[in-house]
Amino acid sequence: MKCVFDSCSGAIAYAGENSSFALYYSEKTNPDPTIHIHNCCEVFLCLSGGKNFLIGGRLYEVHDGDIFVINQYEGHKITYRENESFRRFVFQISPEFIYSQSSDQTDLTSCFYPHENDFDHRRRLSPERLEKLRKKITVLESDHGYGDDIIKRQAMLEILVELNIIFMTDDDIGNGVVSNEAVRLAIEYINLNYMYPMTLDDVAKSAYLSVNQLCRLFVKHCGTTIAKYIVSKRITEAKKMLASGKSVTETSMLCGFGDYSAFMRVFKKNVGITPGKYKNASEKTDV
After folding, report:
1. What is the pTM of this model?
2. Are residues 73 and 154 in the same domain?
3. Which of 41, 102, 193, 275 could make a disulfide contact with 108, Cβ separation 3.0–4.6 Å?
């Protein structure tokens, strides 16, 4: 059973198409400002070199040994420290797989779909927990011959169980979000006003800076532009609304896309399918 891929896109495609899971390891650096928006849940383990991680509406400082959980509705973008090896494992897991492997007693989705608005996507792993996780990853990377698929599925389930335990019981979440006040204010303003028409000047005023000053700071800390973040926030909320049963037209208006055709175009560009197809797929899977 192949579950290790040499690209993140390959892992996402495999996990999604097979309602399964996949693993990606990399040391590559990528200055691309694109914010990731896909239909898999993600577990991101930073071994070294991470800097800041933008997830949904929060911006985190990244330290070696940090692990992050992200659901399929949350746009995300990580930056890295220059002149350092950026080593990370990335799990892509189909939501259908997580739901199907859960039980009445054990809900494996808990760490991906928290109910608290101030949920912290990050935990800092102890050396013991990191070593335990690395051993499970080795199982996924190995060829076990007969029973390979069962052995790897069992290893993935054990990882999901451990992950939920960590997020339920571990309070070592580090120093919270990135402390730059202007960037924090800008993100907060966008998160509260994404449903309305918005200009860069509006966002800059909320942070008490000029547009040029804020744009430079935003790219420095978030690795992407303000405009791209606004789009990702709107698409993130649109995915949630479509999955909850709202119509494409209603979602377009509620997410700040005054022009229906623009919503169709931007959604397909970022998600890969039209809003209508996404809505139908979400209703069929009921996740």
Report:
1. 0.90
2. yes
3. 102
- Tell me which of 110, 140, 169 is where a domain ends: 169
Would you say residue 96 has pLDDT above 90? yes
* Domain tally, the chain: 2
Longest dimension (CA), the chain: 63
278 and 163, same structural domain? no
* Burial letters 109-145, b for 16+ CB under 10 A, else e: bbbbbeeeeeebbbbbbeeebbeebeebbeebeeeee
pLDDT tens figures, 158-204: 999 999 999 988 655 554 567 689 999 999 999 999 999 999 999 99
Helix/strand number for the chain, H first, E second: 11, 9
Q: Up-side HSE of residue 92: CA atoms within 13 Å toward CB?
A: 26
What is d(CA 265, CA 268) in angstroms, rounded to the nearest whole number?
A: 5
Encoded tokens for 164: 């939920």
Q: Nearest-CA neighbor of 160 among 83, 277, 67? A: 67
Digit-coded pLDDT (tens) for 220-271: 999 999 999 999 999 999 999 999 999 999 999 999 987 889 999 999 999 9
